[in-house]
Amino acid sequence: MNQCKVMKDGYLEKRSNGLLQLWKKKRCVLSEEGLRLYDCKGESSKEMRFELMTTLDCVEYKRGLVYFTIVMNGGKEIDFRCQQEGTAWNAEIALALVRFKNRVAVQTGRNRHLSHLGSCGEGDVEL
């Protein structure tokens, strides 16, 4: 994800997995490949790649905050919240996820088409 175009850079709060489920502020960088979360000191990061995400849902608006959930392939749900101003993070992440899945689907379709052409011998026609 290091070489990818940065689409959004800013702060989100992520709900912790612990017993108290506290909200922790994270610096987040959204790219064409996924979301990278940095701890508040910027010393360590966690990568959430779109290829491992299923969807973004459970959007709720309360007291100037947007709450949303990213669902990973295994069913794990990760809760976030952010300020409700400008284009919200949930919309940016959802659009980037759809773009990624569309790009993968097009590439998969191309690969199937090319492999079909190769197996039928159509790719061997000389002009």
UniProtKB/TrEMBL annotation:
Please list the residue ranges annotated as the PH domain.
6-100
Tell me the superkingdom of the source.
Eukaryota
User: For this chain's UniProt record, which GO biological process terms are given?
Assistant: positive regulation of apoptotic process
Task: Indicate yes or no for the key word Transferase.
Answer: no
Q: Name one GO cellular component term.
A: cytoplasm
The record's annotation in CDD domains points to: PH (cd00821)
Q: Kindly list the places in or outside the cell where this protein is found, as annotated in its UniProt entry.
A: Cytoplasm
Which GO-annotated molecular functions does the record name? phosphatidylinositol phosphate binding
Query: Could you tell me what this protein is called?
Result: PH domain-containing protein
Q: Which UniProt keywords apply?
A: Cytoplasm
- Keyword Cell membrane set for record: no
